Each structure stands twice: as structure tokens, then as C-alpha cells.
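User: Predict the full complex structure for these chains.
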Amino acid sequence: MSIAPNRLTTEEYQINFSDIHPPFETADAALVEANRCLFCYDAPCIKACPTSINVPKFIKQITTDNIKGSAHTIFLSNIMGAGCSKVCPVEKLCEGSCVFNLMDEAPIAIAKLQRYSTGIAMENSWQFFKRKSSSGKKVAIVGAGPAGLSCAHMLSREGIDVTIFEKESKGGGLMTYGIAAYKVTPQFCEEELNYILAIGGIQVNYNQELGKDFSLTDLQQNFDAVYLAIGVGLARKLDIPGEELLGVEDAISFIYNLRNNDYATIPVGDKVAVIGMGMTAIDAATQAKRLGAKEVTMLYRRTKEEMPCTQHELDIAMLDGCEIKWLVAPKELIGIDGKVNQVICSKMHLGEPDASGRRSPVETGETFLLEVDMVIKAAGQMPFEKLVTDYQLQNKNGKIMLDNEAANLRGVFAGGDAVNGGKEVVDAVQAGKDGAARILQHLGITQ
Amino acid sequence: MADISSNFLGIKSPNPFWLASAPPTDKKINVLRAFEAGWGGVVWKTLGSQVKNVSSRYSAVNYGGHKVMGFNNIELISDRPLDINLLEIEECIKLFPDRAMIVSLMADNDKSSWHDLIKKVEDTGAHGLELNFGCPHGMTERGMGAAVGQDPEIAKMVVEWVMEKATIPVITKLTPNVHSVVPTGKAVVEAGTHALSLINTIQSITGVDLDTLVPNPYVAGKSVFGGYCGPAVKPIALKFLTTIAQNEITKRVPVSGIGGVSTWKDAVEFLLLGASNVQVCTAVMTHGFRIIEDMCDGLNNWMDEKGFNTLEDFIGKSVDTITHWEDLDINYHHIAKINQDKCIHCGLCYIACEDTSHQSINMEYGNPYNKYTIKEEECVGCNLCQLICPVNDCITMEEQRVAPEYLNWVEFQKRGLPLNDH
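Assistant: Here is the predicted structure of the two-chain assembly.
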């Protein structure tokens, strides 16, 4: 047993990491699906979308051969509409609320249709928004992820001069660095970033990290307003013995490496245990399998009822051959020569509801051993608590607290994962819109 | 099993489904394929004056992702040599003696041309003649087709010529490009035609190409008005048919119903409104002759379920239910009811009623599903919500009479009852 790269042929890597939700191959195929849409009034799909995309309208526009109008409708609500069409858990958002579900009919393939229109718009570089002439106001945004980009685009439309400070060398945030490759490629993320920045008036300074390369005070002094879209980043520790052993990695860095290197260079174990059952846990487990791990076992301390991932995501993991163990928590990681080779697993049962409202897992006292050579921790990400506390930003466990989008420091606003603790890309896009609207008020640009 | 065989003016066919005079019936190979598939009869594509066709010839109206809701053509009558047509007609009759063979005719506008043509066609052994007084394009510019059917006097004159010569049943086909088909219908019945058929196609432009800016169908940068047909024209055909079935003179002769017949259900509707059989064209041009199987099967099953043994048991049965508006019962009232178990909360009923009807549907906000209920006191029973609801039987119209007795408009006025009270 060992952790090793180069487990598969180039063709195998290509197949394993190809688009899991392929687009419509032809306009006719998109039309057949678009024509199924009932064009609901006050449609549930609009309400279920955090950015309130007018779904029936953009689908209707596909049926009238008005693809420009369709893409415009989408981007008007969500400038990352193309990316969201690939990464949104639509089964619990728009498609999950489609009225066809109530007829036991397959819901409209909203994401696929959204991808169709936005894809054509991006291929043709159709720009729907014109930046107003410069207002002379300057806003700094920290973080070029979905919240930051959405905010920047909205501000630039109103003639604000925006500077984004990004700690990585590429924009896109978790879209670029934290999502399974079979959903969205880094190359697409770059195209989407360029599409958004094409409006002009947005300067992105890469490799600039808050607290290292510049301070919040610098920004407050040099800009009319600051928007913090710093996300979350720190992987939650398991706080069990053996966490420091070789072969124990957190899912964030595992996926980060996958996004920045050739698949063949990414080492993976023969027998991999993934701790957690969120979207990131699924992305780590499925990609470990797709990199050539022989066995992938997912451990979750609660039951299927409480799992944070969607059924659709779970299905992907199960179809990939990942084994799922419910009501199991790692108690200790055992190693030989400093390398992990066993997980002592506690069998759990559900006790009283905890703060999250979910019944909390309690040890039964029974344990078993799981043979492994790699452990991927996906027990959640934590906000940058120290950073925000150091800047005296009011926060709750590191999550920045807001009053009408504004932080407790004058001229400082925030949004996205840094505030909500980690939600979907589409939630971050909406947060960026809300933040921009509030900043525009603050600057006296709008009422 | 019901008996779906048809007897039209003594012309027998195993079912009441004939193919209309059109491209599907213009030569032996098509007609034999149709008979093999099971069609009861054909009306051979119009013979007569010599013509030359153009390219292209057809265009269509698509709707909601469905192709060919309506169809139009600018093709003329048969452009094949008359002697070949006659020979092939004779061969088809010999190969399928149990099927109806009617031949459509459109001679030049003089008696001898008609007489010559009738003689030649009767020599083939054909069972009947159909006079094409309806073709709305091309031939009209030469004083034929619809130009004849639109003028009762001319139509009458031509039928009189025909009746002097014909020894087999004569069906006169009427054009719908008139405000009423009755004047021409009366004229040709009085001139002696044995039967009528309707409708022929309706003059139309199906659309304009938004790149070339030339209407369809395209012929070297130009187009002409074409003859419209297909599912979209059925309601117009049924209306014209009913006026013929209700007129004292025209109702004396049987009618072959034409216009958008695509399924057995359409056919039953034509028969209920007075047609003795139906003719089909667009439906086979879009799906092939195989559709005859379900047409026969569906008709048979429906007749069994309804207890009708023969077509005569229900032909014309609905004609008397079409009345004058002033005879309608004003005391009849029904209102919509939404079955909440079936409702999928699409809101289509609400927005239609709110924007365009009587604001009779209440919307209770929900996330993500709103609840929709009928405001009974506001509902006028217009049917709009039921018509657009995507779920079968989710919205039903429940009878709630204003008063038990029948009351019509004439009586209503006599009694001086209040207006503006639905």
C-alpha cells in the first residue's frame, strides 16, 4: 500500500475528469427542452434561485431564437450565470422546485439551458453591460471569488473604479480552486473571469494577501469603501490523535492541488478514507477514486437524513464506487513509520438535537479498524477568525457580522462565505450584488 | 366490433377515410401504398388543364416546438400527362376493387373541355368525380379553381355542364375563401351535384423569412399566397361544414368533410357535424400513410364504447346543438374549481385570469409554491383557466345554475332583467 501519482493512462484521466453534465450538443436539443417549460407565473424556480434569475423568461427566449435576450436575462441577475449553471446544486434550488416534480415528471433542465445561452454569449463575447463614465469613487475589494467579482461588476457598471486584491495568482476563488474538475475546469473559470472583467474599470492585483501584503487600514485610507469577500479557507481539524501523520491531508489542499497540476502528478492512496459528507467531501472522494484509488470509504458521523450534500452528489460518489459508512466517526489515526495505515472508527448513534438543530452523534463505545494509506479530512472550513478579530471586525466565530451589509468599521462592507460561513457560489454572487447596492448608497451614487 | 364501413352515394369503402385530392394521390405508387396501408379511398389529384409547377411549393407554421401546425402549398393541379394518370387510375382500381376511387377535375372553362375530361375519366372505371372549385392559387388567375367556387352563378353553370355528361356520382368541392360557403353550396346543389365536399385550402401567408425578408414558400426572391391547411384550419372547416349541414337546401346532399383531419377524433367531430366521411391530406404528408391504423382502430373503439354500430348512427348528431346565440340558456352558469391535490402551482390560471379575464383567482403567496383558489363570486365561467391549466382535470367547471328554468336572451329582454350582472 502506498500513496502514488501516475496511476492511470492519459485517456483514463481524460475520461474520469470530463464534464459530468455535458451541454446540449445541438440547438434542436435545447429547443426541445426549452419548449417543455410551462412558463410559470411567479415561478417557484425564480424564488428558489438565490440570485432570482428569471428562469421562465430566459427559457422562453430560447424558444423564440432570442439567445442574446436569454443570456442577458441570466446575467442581469447573475453575472456568474455561466459558472453557476455548472456548479449549482440545482436539485435543491431551481430544478428542485420545478412544478414538473409535482407531476412526477422530470424537471426542466434549467442548468443545462442556462449553460446553453450563457455559453453562446461567452463564445461570442456578447457584453450586455456598459460601464457608466467614472464617478471618481474608488472601492477596494478583497478577494476575487464569486462575491468579490459580482460586487465589482455591479459597482463598475455604476462608474466606480474598482481594485480587487487577490491572494492567489488567479481569480475565481473557490470556483477556480475548490470545485471538482469534472464540474468546472480552471480554464473555464479563467474565461468567465475575463468575461466579467471585460466591462472595464476593474483592476485585479494578484498575489496580494490581506494582513500580509496590505492592511485593512491601508484600504480604508486609500479608497472610498472596502468590500471584504475573503471567503473561508482554513480546514477544520479533527482534533484526534494521529492527525499529523503522513498521508493525512485536508480536502481543501487536495482539491487545490488538483486544480493547479496535471492529474497524473497528484498522488493518491490505494485505500482512502474521506471524513465528512458535505459537497467538498464528495468532491474529494470522487476525485480520489477518479485519480485511481482502489478503495474510497466515506465516513460520516450522522445518518443520511442529516448529510449536508445533496442526494445527487451522494449518487455521484456511490456511482463512482465510493463506500459510504453512516454513523461512523474517526477516533484515532494509527501509523507505521510516521505514515497513516489505520483509522480507529467509533460507531455512533444519534442523541439530542445540537445547535444546528440536527440530532448530534454520540459514541456507542463500539469501535472497528479501517485499513487505509490516506485520509482526507473534509470536516468543514473555518472562517479567518484571527484575521477579522485582529482588525476589530465584529464577528461570530470568525464570521463577519453585518448590519445592512455594512461591517462595524466605517466604509467597510462584506459578503459571501466570510459572512455566511460557506454556502453556494450562487449565494456569494447574490451577496456581492447586495453589498454593491449598499456601497452605492453609502457613496451617494444611488438613493 | 362496430362496422366502420362507409357508403357515400353508393360508393363503398371499408372505412370513412379517404385521401384528399393532393400530392399523396397524384400517382399510382402513392395510391397503392395508401391502399396497402388501409386507406378506404382516394380522390385522385386534380386532372384537367395543363400546368407547370414551380420550386419550392410548401411552407408551414410551427408552434410551441411542434412542427406543421399549419401547412400551405402553391402547387397546382396534376402536372403529369393526362393519359398516364388515366392509365394508373385504372390499374389502381383493378388492384384494389374494394376501395373508393374518386377523380378530381378542373377543366378549362368551357363545356366541351369538361365533357371530354369526364368521358375519359369515366372510362377508367372511377367511382365518382370531384369538381375542384376551390384551389386558391395559380389556377384562379386563369379563371379556374376558387374563381369558380367564389361565384355561385359560374359554379352553377359548370355543374350544369358536368351533370349533362356525368353518369357517376358528382361531388362539388367548395372553397372557404368566401364569407359563407352556403350561396355556392345552394347553387351547385340546385344545379344537380350529388354531394359536396369542403373545405379546400385557405389563402394564406405562413410567415416571412426574417433573413431574406421574403415570405414562404420562397421562389427566386418572391412568393405567392398559398393554400392553408392542416390542424390549424380544422375549426374553420367545422364551422363551414355545419352551415352546410344546417341549410335546408345544402343539407339534402351528403358531405365529404375536409380540413385538418389528423386523428380519428377529428374525423368523429366532422361526422357529428354532418360529414358522411372525411378526407385527409396534411396528416399523411407529415406522418405517412401508417396513421390510418389508429384512425380505424380509435374510431372502432369509440363507437363500441358509445354503442354506435354503424357510422349512420352518429353522422350529424351534433348539428342541432349549434344554435343561435340568442337561444342560449342565460340561466346556465358554471364556475371554475381548482383541485388542490392536482395543482402544481404554475400560476398560469392566475396570471391569465388576472391580466386578461375577470380577476377571479386568488393568489396566496408561498415559498416556493403559491396557492391558487377561485373567487366563486367573481368567476363568470369563461373556461380560460381550465383551457390553459397543464394538468388534466385539475380545474373543472362546476355547474351552478342561476335559476332552474331555461331563459334565453329574447325572454330576458322581454322581462326587463338587469344587465351587467354575471
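Chain B touches chain A at residues 64-65, 344-348, 350-351, 363, 367-370, 390-391 (CB under 8 Å).
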